[in-house]
Amino acid sequence: MAKTAAQITDEEMVVYRTTSQRREEQERQEEIQRKQRALSLAEQAAKILRMDFQARQVILFGSLARGEFFHRRSDIDLVVAGVKSQDFWRAWGTLDKLGGEFEIDLVDIETASPALRLILEQEGVEL
Questions:
Q1: Distances (CA, A) of 36 to 40, 64, 71
Q2: Which pTM was predicted?
């Protein structure tokens, strides 16, 4: 039978708090590891874009680039320059197959809005 907060003993509260703290720490560690996997995948994607699609520049932006607000549903946002328009969708498809646990969004710098270009200047990370 469930207890109300008033019915929980001091010992039970200690166990509850300890368990809660362990769970929070485990979630933090999982989040750090997920972010590291995402950064590694972004770097791998940049190499593929350069080697297979002659990209001149690959820029990471969004929550992964900022390093804050990256969470379990975050994706990998990349802007690319130099990929021929006829190869763009094939490049995106190649990256999509890489993604696994992460969705990879790819934007051609030529089609980037002024607002996105401003974001790239402020927080973009060249890979």
A1: 6, 10, 12
A2: 0.80
